[in-house]
Write a structure and sequence with these properties.
The protein has about 260 residues and is of the alpha+beta class. The chain contains twelve helices and five strands.
């Protein structure tokens, strides 16, 4: 480091009796890059230390900016919340008169959605009277079991929200079985949830199931959810498998009326 500074100081003296401009230094180094290479070779450990420090500082500044941007965006969504559609007959988990509605855009085969499922369980336990959940679908192309599993959820939901969410829980708690057994496991989970299997088979053939899933995917795109899971908490977005504390911050702010 000391050697590098001496090289640069000498370069500055050659260029001008006054302090050189950044442009002058840049031109000199471009003309003869060996000046810098010599300094690096003289003390490579110091050079790496300087580069790493600069990288850490840049990363820190980037994180601070991202946090500030996220905070600003969140304030905007509290003032003007996003408005998802909640159609009649939609399977809803939690009290009908809950003050907080969480709309979740999810993929049954996504491991991050499994984390999201566990977090939502924490949320429901912490706010049993204040929170309800609407599960919507965003099956990703590279998860081949996600779309069929979504169809099963909607078919089971026609027999009751409680049965649909029992099926939902079974899938997320046994994702490895979903991946290895496919539709056989979906049927098993639906049966254990209490579904009438004959009615289920008939409903699975109804194209309206796919219409609902497609509408969910289009709505997710409208709100700029490209990955899973994504959440709207009374219209305020969380994008990713965030921990309980992030949900709590938004829910408590809503409940406080701020």
């Amino acid at each position: 480091m000391k050697h590098m500074m001496m090289v640069l100081a000498g370069l500055a003296f050659v260029l001008s009796a006054c302090a050189p401009s950044a442009k002058q230094l840049k031109e000199a180094i471009e003309k003869d890059p060996s000046i810098v290479f010599a300094a690096i070779e003289k003390d490579p450990e110091q050079f790496i230390e300087v580069v790493n420090k600069a990288a850490r500082e840049a990363q820190s500044k980037g994180a601070e900016k991202a946090q500030a941007d996220e905070s600003k965006k969140r304030d905007e969504e509290f003032a003007n919340p996003l408005k998802p559609k909640i159609e009649e007959g939609r399977a809803i988990h939690g009290p009908a008169d809950a003050k907080i509605t969480i709309v979740e855009y999810s993929d049954f085969e996504c491991p991050y959605c499994s984390r999201g499922y566990q977090t939502i369980k924490e949320v429901m336990k912490a706010y049993p009277k204040d929170v309800r959940v609407v599960f919507k679908h965003l099956p990703l192309d590279f998860h081949p079991k996600a779309l069929p599993a979504a169809k099963y959820f909607e078919a089971v939901a026609r027999q009751g929200a409680d049965k649909a969410y029992k099926y939902h829980d079974a899938i997320f708690e046994n994702q490895s079985d979903l991946r290895t057994k496919g539709e056989a496991f979906m049927k098993e989970a639906a049966k254990k949830a209490g579904a009438d299997m004959k009615k289920l088979e008939k409903d699975l053939a109804d194209p309206k199931l796919m219409d609902r899933i497609t509408a969910d995917m289009e709505e997710a795109k409208e709100f700029n959810f490209s990955g899973t899971p994504g959440f709207l908490i009374n219209g305020v977005s969380l994008r990713g498998a965030y921990p309980f504390s992030e949900f709590k911050t938004i829910i408590d702010r809503h409940l406080a009326g701020k």
